[in-house]
Design a protein that fits this description.
Helix content: 25-40%
Distance between the termini: 108 Å
Strand content: 15-25%
Strand order of the largest sheet: 1-2-3-4-7-8-6-5
Order of helices and strands: HEEEEEEEE
CATH topology: Sortase, Chain: A
Radius of gyration: 28 Å
Number of strands: 8
Shape: elongated
CATH architecture: Beta Barrel
Largest sheet: 8 strands, mixed, barrel
Number of helices: 1
Number of domains: 1
Length: 277
């Protein structure tokens, strides 16, 4: 009888030990799973909420700084933000633009007749420094007021909640194409609802010199990130040639990523200058 008991005891102890080891493995796995879930949730909150709060606050402060400077020291000098440069691929929501693209330089616009030989030439201020804010973009339809900075660098322009001016494209209010890019999601997402714009909507661009009023004319719902034709001096899509223009004019181009939360394609909105204040 005692022999039978002694033979059974080791078997029972081993079974309990295995169950305890299995329980520990399950517990550790559950803890790791919950920890990873919390980290992912925090990352999502940071990207979708916190970056927006930071960028919007910085953008609002920059708008106030610009408008305070302009109100204190207004200037009638002409805007010079259409200095020539090199356009890159179309930037926007989450995709990064490539300002080092090998595409040919976009023609810079210069409206108006050439001055006579004896007439004094107007003083043209230097072009905005890279990443420097030089204008304010307002789109009443979207309730948007945001600073415009030179360049489309993600770190120093777009991720700060600003809208970026493509280097090499025209200046505000000038003959040519004043082309801008902005995030559609995260980091202030100024162009989140760009798809809501429709022909006839007004867009305002204020500089130190004056305010330019544009009216939305065409919307290209989707094109390739490398469709640089849409930001040329006379904009026309290289991917969808039926979208665009044939004659010079004072154009405004807004670009961002589409669909939302991706950088697969670009959404393009074109507007034409209708008045100056």
């Amino acid at each position: 009888m005692w022999a039978r008991v002694r033979e059974r005891v080791p078997v029972v102890v081993q079974a309990r030990g295995r169950r305890r080891a299995g329980a520990r493995v399950l517990w550790v796995s559950a803890e790791a799973f919950v920890t990873c879930g919390v980290l992912v949730l925090l990352l999502v909150v940071h990207q979708l909420w916190w970056t927006n709060q930071q960028a919007r606050a910085e953008a609002r402060d920059q708008v106030r700084v610009l408008e305070r400077e302009w109100d204190i020291s207004p200037s009638d000098s002409s805007d010079s933000s259409d200095q020539p440069g090199q356009p890159g691929q179309l930037d926007g929501a989450g995709g990064g633009g490539d300002p080092s693209s090998s595409e040919p330089a976009v023609e810079s616009g210069s409206g108006g007749a050439a001055p006579s030989a004896g007439a004094p030439r107007p003083t043209v201020p230097p072009a905005p420094a890279p990443s420097a804010a030089f204008a304010v973009l307002r789109i009443p339809r979207l309730g948007l007021t945001v600073p415009v900075a030179e360049g489309i660098s993600k770190r120093s322009v777009l991720d700060k909640g600003y809208v970026g001016h493509y280097p090499g494209t025209g200046g505000a209010g000038r003959v040519g194409n004043f082309a801008l890019a902005g995030h559609r999601n995260t980091h202030g997402e100024p162009f989140r609802y760009l798809n809501r714009l429709a022909p006839g909507d007004r867009i305002f661009v204020r500089t130190r010199a004056r305010t330019y009023v544009y009216r939305v004319d065409l919307v290209l719902g989707s094109t390739s990130p490398r469709d640089v034709g849409v930001i040329r001096a006379v904009p026309r899509s290289l991917v969808k040639p039926s979208y665009g223009y044939d004659a010079p004019g004072a154009y405004l181009t807004l670009t961002t990523c589409t669909p939302e939360f991706t950088s697969t394609y670009r959404l393009v909105v074109w507007a034409k200058l209708v008045s100056t204040r």
